[in-house]
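User: Can you write out an input/output pair for a complex, sequences first and structure second?

Assistant: Here is one pair. Inputs:
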Amino acid sequence: MKSHAEQDAGTVLSSGWCCHPCDWLHGILSSVPQFTNSPTLIVMVGLPARGKTYISKKLTRYLNWIGVPTKVFNLGQYRREVQSYKSFEFFRPDNEEAMQIRKACASNALKDVVIYFSKEHGQVAVFDATNTTRERRVSIVSFAKEKGYKVFFVESICDDPDIIAQNIADVKVSSPDYLNCDKEEALADFLKRIECYKQTYVPLDDEKDRRLSYIKIFNVGSRYLVNCVQDHIQSRIVYYLMNIHVTPRSIYLSRHGESNMNLLGRIGGDSGLSPRGHKYATALGTFIKSQHIKDLKVWTSHMKRTIQTAEHLGIPYEQWKALNEIDAGVCEEMTYEEIQDNHPEEFALRDQDKYRYRYPKGESYEDLVHRLEPVIMELERQENVLVVCHQAVMRCLLAYLLDKTADELPYLKCPLHTALKLTPVAYGCKVEHVFLNIEAVNTHRERPGNVDVSRDPEEALKTIPDHF
Amino acid sequence: MLVLYCPQGASVPQFTNSPTLIVMVGLPARGKTYISKKLTRYLNWIGVPTKVFNLGQYRREVQSYKSFEFFRPDNEEAMQIRKACASNALKDVVIYFSKEHGQVAVFDATNTTRERRVSIVSFAKEKGYKVFFVESICDDPDIIAQNIADVKVSSPDYLNCDKEEALADFLKRIECYKQTYVPLDDEKDRRLSYIKIFNVGSRYLVNCVQDHIQSRIVYYLMNIHVTPRSIYLSRHGESNMNLLGRIGGDSGLSPRGHKYATALGTFIKSQHIKDLKVWTSHMKRTIQTAEHLGIPYEQWKALNEIDAGVCEEMTYEEIQDNHPEEFALRDQDKYRYRYPKGESYEDLVHRLEPVIMELERQENVLVVCHQAVMRCLLAYLLDKTADELPYLKCPLHTALKLTPVAYGCKVEHVFLNIEAVNTHRERPGVSFTKHVHLLQAQYKIIKCIIDSQYASVASDVVWHSVKVAQHVVNQTFSQAILTLGCRINDHT
């Protein structure tokens, strides 16, 4: 049987299904089909302090996590490289010299977008700039058309002075532009900056722009206008943008308490908690109560060990099958030593590419991410949530929340009996580790030095954690 | 003896605590009933009990239709009837939510005046229901004319009219509504939760989505379209496992399976389908089938066959031998039953939801998949219940062509004339009773024969019965016959 890959390597097929090495690898190994053929250029639109950079970064983090290579191109950064900021005067519409610099920066950013798409296997680029004039947007659209890129606009419109003031306080006064200013000065200057833009701001127009693809976000999401969604990836982007919010909240992540399998150094299975595991669950309950969390939702998997852990909390919990631990297939319930004995080649292959490696009759981390996507979407919709889950699952969730790469993800440290409190702050997430002082075995296996299939058993087992 | 299977918890979290009342808004012929039915079908399929309450049907029950004059805004008498119908429909909604475990009700009516919508909102507030409006706005005369031709002229209202008459009357009906139509307002209605759909989806306005189910509804509505297209469903060609009567596994195609794949390729080419997308699972048998088509295909892990866990690669006889209790539990509730370390049909539906969403976005698609998977997809497309789903007939070597038409789907079965084994297992309620009666009859015969001392004849019948009894849950019966068989042998 000729594999799909062999048939297609390097050729452009009749229906325009273009193949380069990244595509077929993506198609064969990944659990998701090709989302889009042409690269997509997302163009942010809006006055300063409307959340464009916040949206750009968050959207990029999400797309990368689900496996769509995405990158932000922030015009402010390009400008800062060629011109150190003096004052709002730079942004006056009549400042000819500054206008030339700004146009050159935009041009350089778009040149980098071309490199990202054609040479770095990028699929989505987010052009984070104000793009507030029709003229600028028209030139971007022709640029994209010429290159064969799809364009999707994301316009953020906000007239709530409180929200704008909050944005400015959160991220603007501490921007590199205002390094040597005090807060009052920075605020005053920034407000004048916004006024400069307002003079020439033309929002996307219902009539004139009816053929463009875009979403308009009003007042941080109370309302959306969606026009001409072209394809699957744009549909997913719209769905994501419509589910995120900025209401302050915290996400708590914890593994189940130490289980009997953990004690024996075995992976997978569906065992109950060990005595220490029960102690942890009680301690977790005490900790949660002490936090006085408003309307906390608790989620577990369908496996005994997370359910038993949640039982001690005394709060109603929801079970998600999607939160079940990674399925280790033929290696279920084995110790690492047994895996090395019975499947030494598989063990080595896993160490070579732990993210994509799929246990025979089991799953890969990549599969896990795909299965966790609805959990992430609901996590975005919710406010205070405690997720009681498993090592591999927690690594995937953490990678999403802290923007870790596929390479880093399978080696993130998620020890037993440690709760993580994640609080969104500015453009990222603050993390607090809470170790609840109940001892547990270590289940973390570092990547060994030798990942070759011909390696000796000792080399394979060098990094396995201790167990009974 | 027979243990009732109680799932510990559904595989989907609670979507919403309060019931949701979806209120359609729009002039006649704007696709409200189309959207209502399609959305209801989707929500029921993903496990959210949903029902449509169509005001037109309530009206037809109390008043046979004469002409558009009924809908004139100044027709006081008719207005009273219409209000009473709306009131009855909402009473039924209350019953559906409080007594029939409904979670979403779709109120399919024009609801074109502010007054009507205000009264619905207070009704819902009083009852503790959430309200979500779906307004369909269309000013494209071609689309409206198409709608009228597709579903209006053939409506029960126009049973005895010819097409021209029906069309003329219906257009006057629309004019009646236009006079008092007030669309949802950006300013005045800014606290209501709604989606406005413009011109069949080129544009959407979404306001104040309250919760998860409304978010899913919005996502679904933004992905459906009405462009004509066909969906082709086929299982992989007959596999080597199929030949052995084994379930699951990842085997390749049998020789007949390869023949089918080639025939499928020929059939597909003959259809001259525009821009056909082909989807397969990650399993060899669907990939091998697609290979014969000569068209690029995409692999979806989500399309993999149901995971039979500990029963993978067994025959039904082996399952009966090794896991008789599980086998019985499965027959009691085939939709929710989860194989140990495997999946249930319910899990499968959950896993297939992104496939359905993408199927809605696409146009012409051929999905090459597996028996249980195809049953789930078919149940969605043809609005089958969770009870019917696991018993839908999806034979090997038969392609199904589904074409959306009016409010439903036209199905064409294409058997490509390549023989294959039958892999369909009927609901045992039917065969169970049949088998029990058969056994009882045979038992009586055997007893007679033994009593008449024609023992040698009896033994063949006995062993046949034993084989049959292996398919029967109640093993004590087969034990009795086995014992009888021994007594016969002792005689001869």
